[in-house]
């Protein structure tokens, strides 16, 4: 009687176990999606979650601690902190979408051209990317925002510019991997033109990892935009942007700890949720 080699028995079992683990219920991933869904609803329909104004204060309600009426307390002008956090989701999330979208589009374009065409164009693009990567991200963002001016949109553009280099390197590496695969060579052998093969085969098969990286960059963009707002380069007062809320509350941290704690926790939870979703996307790819 013949016996099968051990690797022929164990490897299929390991692959099956990994596939079952991939589709099993994951509480951490479910919590991450719940956080992102809640914040997205805050941004789209803030009136569903609070009846207070994010910019108008309430007389005699300055710096009240969290209670049944004001769930997260009030600030120095008597404005409900929970309402400001809810309405601030639109500014923070829209800025992150602009930043990630800018980095994704420009980085994909440069990486696709460099990886697909190669030659002198690849050298010029990648040497330029090396120069961008040599500059600290915060310094580059500050330089861009000083040129463009202050505001949430300009801060988002500045953060997006800093992420172009990372997207370009990732897209180029994926394009080089896909370009030398057998089905791409078969497409060329079947009479496919350069642009048709690029559009139908190389680009779609190169974007899976890029989308996972974009989810990771979404959390990083929220953190970067909040940092710029905290430093005074983002949205002007009284805009309820999360980084600006933390900056305004730092002067009262000894007497009103909730002014910095709750906005900071929201930023932390959103960033961690985006990172967890990105990790699950990379796991699905594998």
TrEMBL record:
Please list the residue ranges annotated as the ABC transmembrane type-1 domain.
Answer: 89-278
List keywords of the entry alphabetically: Cell inner membrane, Cell membrane, Membrane, Transmembrane, Transmembrane helix, Transport
Query: What PROSITE patterns is this protein classified in?
Result: ABC_TM1
Q: Where in the cell is it found?
A: Cell inner membrane; Cell membrane
Q: What is its main location?
A: membrane
Q: GO CC terms on record?
A: plasma membrane
Give the domain of life. Answer: Bacteria
- Which ranges does the record mark as transmembrane? 23-45, 96-121, 133-166, 186-203, 210-232, 252-272
Membrane topology per record: Multi-pass membrane protein
Question: Which Gene Ontology biological process is one annotated for this entry?
Answer: transmembrane transport
Q: Which SUPFAM superfamilies match?
A: MetI-like
Q: State the family it belongs to.
A: Belongs to the binding-protein-dependent transport system permease family.
Q: What is this protein called?
A: Peptide/nickel transport system permease protein
**Where does this protein come from, organism-wise?**
Samsonia erythrinae
Q: What is the lineage of its organism?
A: Bacteria, Pseudomonadati, Pseudomonadota, Gammaproteobacteria, Enterobacterales
């Amino acid at each position: 009687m013949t016996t099968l080699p051990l690797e022929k028995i164990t490897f299929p079992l390991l692959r099956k176990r990994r596939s079952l683990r991939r589709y099993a219920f994951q509480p951490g991933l479910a919590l991450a999606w719940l956080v992102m869904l809640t914040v997205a609803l805050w941004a789209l329909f803030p009136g569903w979650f609070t009846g207070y104004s994010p910019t108008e204060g309430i007389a005699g309600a300055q710096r009240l601690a969290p209670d049944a009426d004001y769930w997260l307390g009030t600030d120095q002008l008597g404005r409900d902190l929970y309402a400001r956090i809810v309405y601030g989701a639109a500014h923070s999330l829209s800025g992150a979408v602009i930043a990630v979208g800018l980095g994704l589009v420009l980085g994909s374009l440069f990486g696709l051209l460099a990886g697909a065409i190669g030659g002198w164009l690849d050298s010029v693009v990648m040497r330029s990317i090396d120069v961008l990567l040599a500059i600290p991200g915060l310094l580059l963002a500050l330089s861009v925002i000083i040129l463009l001016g202050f505001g949430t949109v300009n801060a988002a553009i500045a953060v997006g510019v800093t992420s172009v280099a990372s997207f370009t390197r990732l897209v180029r590496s994926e394009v080089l991997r896909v370009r030398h695969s057998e089905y791409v060579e078969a497409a060329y052998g079947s009479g496919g033109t350069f642009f048709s093969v690029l559009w139908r085969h190389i680009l779609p098969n190169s974007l899976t990892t890029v989308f996972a990286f974009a989810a990771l960059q979404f959390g990083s963009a929220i953190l970067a935009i909040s940092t710029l707002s905290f430093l005074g380069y983002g949205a002007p007062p009284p805009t309820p942007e999360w980084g600006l809320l933390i900056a305004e509350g730092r002067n009262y941290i000894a007497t009103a700890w909730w002014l910095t704690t709750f906005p900071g926790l929201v930023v932390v939870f959103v960033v961690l949720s985006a990172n967890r979703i990105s990790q699950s996307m990379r796991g699905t790819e594998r």
